[in-house]
Structure formats: structure tokens, C-alpha cells
């Protein structure tokens, strides 16, 4: 089964409040067996408008990634993030190997 991935670029406006988001989202990621593969505050941006902190999180499947995103725990974290940042976020299915 192919892995599922959350890919995001986050432009943070309130670094203090972002720490609360990180705590809540970290617990939600762990609860859904997610694995943070990338967390880079200054990626080598080459094209497009998706700037900011780059995040890539791996889940066992695209369904697991969706379950994480739609979970009550992440919904709570997301409500904080939406107030203190601008975010581009996608869920994608990896290639089956």
C-alpha cells in the first residue's frame, strides 16, 4: 500500500502562538502514527508562491493522512494555526513500489 503525505508551507505571523500549535499538532501526529520527514524553516525556494516553513509528514496511507487531518485533535490545532499563519497544505498519495 502506498504511503500518504501531508505537505505544507506555513508562513507564521505569531511565533509564540505557533509553539502551542506545534504541541497540539505533534500529539495528533503521534496519535496517528505520522512521521515528520521534513521541517525546514528556510527551504531553498525556487518557484511558485508556496513559501514559508516547509513540512512533510508521512502516514501509512492516504486514508491515514486524511484521518489525521480530519481528527478532533488536529482540528483543534488547525484552528490555532489558521489564526496565526497563512498555510498552503495538500495531502498526497505516494507511489507504490
Automatic annotation (TrEMBL):
Superkingdom: Bacteria
Domain DUF1330: residue ranges: 3-95
InterPro entries for this protein: Dimeric_a/b-barrel (IPR011008), DUF1330 (IPR010753)
Pfam families in the cross-refs: DUF1330 (PF07045)
Identification of the protein by name: DUF1330 domain-containing protein
